Amino acid sequence: MTFLTKTGLAAALLVGSVSAASAFTACQVTDTGGIDDAGFNQTAWKGVQDSIEEYGIEGRFLESQAEADYEANLNSLLGSCDVIVTVGFLMGDATAAAAAANPDQKYSIVDFAYDPTIPNVVGQVYATDQAAFLAGYLAAGMTETGVLGTFGGINIPPVTIFMDGFVHGANHYNSVHGTEVSVLGWNPESKEGLFTGNFDSLDDGRAFAQNLYDEGADIVLPVAGPVGLGSASLANELGTDELKIIGVDADQTQTDPDRAHVYLTSVLKRMDATVQAVIKAAMDDTFEGGLIVGTLENGGVGLAPFGAFEDAVPAELKAEIEEIRAAIIDGSLTIGG
Amino acid sequence: MTDGKDLQKVNEDMRKLLARAAFGRGNFEDLFVVPVFAVVAALVLGALIMLATGVDLPTIGRSFVALAVGSAGSLNAVSETLTAAIPLVLAGLGLGLGFRAGLFNIGAEGQLLLGGTAAVVFTFSFPSLPFPILMLFGLLTGALVGAAYASIAGILKATTGAHEVITTIMLNLISIRLLEYILRQPYIQREGRADPVSKSVPDAGQLPRLLDWLDPNLRLHAGVFLMLLAVAFVWWLLFRSKIGFAFRASGANPDAARYAGMRSGLVIVAAMATAGALAGLAGAAQVQGVLGRASPGFSAQMGFDAIALALLGRSHPVGILFAGILFGGLEAGGRQMQVDAGVSIDLISIIQALIIVFIAAPLLVRAIFPWGFRKITKGGKA
User: Fold this and answer.
1) What is the per-residue burial (b if ≥16 Cβ within 10 Å, else e) of A126-157?
2) Considering only alpha carbons, which residue of chain A is nearest residue B40?
3) For chain B, how far is it from start to end, CA to CA, in angstroms?
4) Mean pLDDT, chain B, whole residue set
5) Most Cβ neighbours (<10 Å): which of B242, B271, B274, B284?
6) How would residue B347 be classed by pLDDT, with cut points 50, 70 and 90?
7) What angle do CA B280, B336, B57 make, to 5 degrees?
8) Is residue A144 part of a domain?
9) Does A13 touch chain B (CB under 8 A)?
10) What is the pLDDT of residues B316-331, one digit of tens each?
11) What is the mean pLDDT of residues A249-276?
């Protein structure tokens, strides 16, 4: 009791205006990686931040520490949010349940497509394999050992689609150039590969990259949110002649500036753009349940600039990648075909 | 007056000594006054830390209000607090019972994981069973598997003398990987998923939600009765039953207990099995009441939190109940702190930990607030 009255008093003294204004509020629930993961969650949050800047709305986020938090986090945002964006495939069940229980609340989820669609949920999914294909092609052209590596966080479609594209891209390079570049860590046919089992252990990121490096890989694509930061610090210590990293989700030379020089490029998944689009639709009352798909064509996925390797990447390779990009967009090249 | 005070001081010292010797006979001050001052001290220190990391004063005030409101300020808050407390109290009861028997069991995490997984597997394996039966058998399966897993450490200790701290930690590690393996088996893994996640608990196997007729978002489930029953049962077991006396005697003085004719091996295995059953029950209650499925790490470290909780509750069932509600409140309130004040979850974890540290160190709190206790012993104002 003492504690309640004391803090209450303190708060009454300290707080000028507690109540949030009636401004439009967009809320976000992150996955377990955390809002500052320099990739996945952070990119999605950037969509809310951009909306705050451009539309003058309010934004809030909640970080999930464990799967048991998803539902509770979703519940605690009810009543104060005009649209709730959940970030991550693993929140699919929790988001569907919350949407069914609260049919008037607008939801959107990154990385999950409901079939059939739910009237008050917009799924945001990405043809990430298109962008990862370019990264695989680039990496195959840049490797000196002839071995590439990749690993994922958890064996779920939005993770493995990166790895699929990466392997197919490298294979495409092989068939064009007659080389024998191999990719460790993922087999697109059997759907088996290397997974850390989590999206938050930087130690795992270091250990998995070390293992791949020991097996000869000199370019590694970690697809596990902040786990990849551990891989980046290994590359930083070994030097980029020994090991380069391909970032995911955001341009990691921007989100991880201390180690910007280790990133050959990043496979962009423009969650910020789709999140912002959903918020805009909710503000304009054009919100409709369904699906948004990010592709190379609409800029929802892409390949980041080559950063410190801008000069190291041969001009012919750059030109080839541009050709492939165009071929994927016009449909003349199918991935995994 | 001074005589009275001295006498009180002596009395208090005696009580403290007794409390320590009897491991858990907490008195009124320990149970009620210390927590209040501990929370105040933790909030002050927490505020200083937040200031140091650049959080401004209004936000700090707002976040503390949110902590209170989020843990006890609404029906939803109370529901969330209790929902979070259920598995923690169940697992904590088992650990406390082990501590009473002199067993420092670190294995609740593993027992909880396997017990919960077993409950999921049982319920989806017999979806045709009707509601209360499937639910109860699911819980029972969880308890049995938890008991069996804990018994491994108990038997190792009883037969070979292997220390339970080491064996239970190792069994935790094994259970984590074992779970990932189990969840990949075609019979258990959910159709159409490549990641380790189990099939769902059928409706008839779920602990019914108690308040969903008021608001479908209230998550409080029937596990709360299970929790209260378990508190009563453990209290009876420890303080009214013969085996409970053997537990306590073995914990207080194993040699004396042996000379008195108690079979130490049996006591060790029985205490570990009971602790494991409660941890398994915690896992089952969590999957059947909240999660509806098993996935890697669904325990969310509850097995470890429960250790702190059992110690905080002085290994007394009622103390553990209150400690569990405190932990549950911190979890629910911490969430609200994020929502209302936008304080980083990492800072919230620090404040939660500070509150626990201060409560766990009653002597420290008494040293910081000597006036608070003198006033209370004199006037009886709580």
Assistant:
1) bbbbbbbbbbbbbbbbbbeeebbbbbbbbbbb
2) A3
3) 21
4) 88
5) B284
6) confident
7) 135
8) yes
9) yes
10) 999 999 999 999 999 8
11) 94
Give the model's pLDDT for residue B42: 87
Interface test with A, best of B34, B51, B57, B65 (most A CBs within 10 A): B65
DSSP string, A18-57: -SPPS--EEEEE--TT-TTSSSHHHHHHHHHHHHHHHH--
Give pLDDT, residue A7: 43
* B335 at A interface, C-beta within 8 A: yes
> Taking 70 as the threshold, does the pLDDT of residue B17 lie above it?
no
Q: A159 and A240: one domain? A: yes
Nearest Cα residue in chain A from B83: A72
Residue A153 lies in a domain: yes
Q: Return the half-sphere exposure (C-beta side, CA atoms, 13 A cut-off) of residue B63.
A: 27
Q: Are residues A60 and A116 in the same domain?
A: yes
Look up the domain containing A52 and give its range: 23-126+272-294
The neighbouring-strand residues paired with A245 are A220, A263
CB < 8 Å to A156, chain B = 193-195
CA B350 centroid distance within chain: 19
**What's the domain count of chain A?**
2
Cβ within 8 Å, pair B62-A18 = yes
Q: Which of residues 179-218 of A touch B (CB under 8 A)?
A: 191, 197-198
The pLDDT of residue B180 is above 70: yes
Instruction: Say yes or no: A254 and A149 in one domain.
Output: yes
CA–CA distances in Å: residue B207 to residues A7, B220, B373? 37, 10, 43
- In terms of domains, do A150 and A197 share one? yes
Give the separation between CA B246 and CA B256, rounded to whole angstroms: 11
Distance between CA atoms of residues B151 and A184, nearest Å: 42
Same domain, A197 and A263: yes
Name the strand (E) or helix (H) holding A327.
helix A315-330
Q: How close does chain A come to B80, measured CA to CA in Å?
A: 8
On whether both A176 and A116 belong to a single domain, the answer is: no
Predicted model pTM: 0.84
Q: What would the two tokens of residue A119 be?
A: 């009237």
Chain B CB contacts of A157 under 8 Å are 194
Interface residue A156 vs chain B (CB under 8 A): yes
Distance CA B206, CA A311 (A): 60
A19 to chain B, any CB pair closer than 8 A? The answer is no
Q: Is the CB of B345 less than 8 angstroms away from the CB of A197?
A: no
Nearest CA in chain A to B301: A66
**Amino acid (1-letter code) at residue A24:** F
Q: Please indicate, yes or no, whether residues A205 and A156 belong to a single structural domain of this protein.
A: yes
Closest CA to A42 of A270, A298, A292: A270
Percent of chain B with pLDDT over 70: 89
- CA separation, residue B196 to residues B185, B314, B316, B330 (Å): 9, 38, 37, 30
Residue A270: strand, helix, or coil = coil
**Distance (Å, whole) CA B136 – CA B113:** 18
**Is residue A42 a part of any domain in this protein?**
yes
Distance CA A316, CA B323 (A): 67
| Chain B residues with CB-CB distance to A154 below 8 A | 195-196
**Can you give the CATH number for the domain in which A324 is found?**
3.40.50.2300
B 120-159 near A (Cβ less than 8 A)? none
Any CB–CB contact under 8 A between A11 and chain B? yes
Handedness of CA A157, A158, A161, A163 (dihedral sign): negative
| DSSP letters for B56-84 | -HHHHHHHHHHHHHHHHSSHHHHHHHHHH
pLDDT band per the 50, 70, 90 thresholds, residue A147: very high
Residue A6 belongs to some domain of the structure: no
Say if residue A195 is in the same domain as residue A48.
no
pLDDT of residue B194: 84
Q: Is A135:A265 a contact under the CB 8 Å cutoff?
A: yes
Question: Are A7 and B65 a contacting pair at CB < 8 A?
Answer: yes
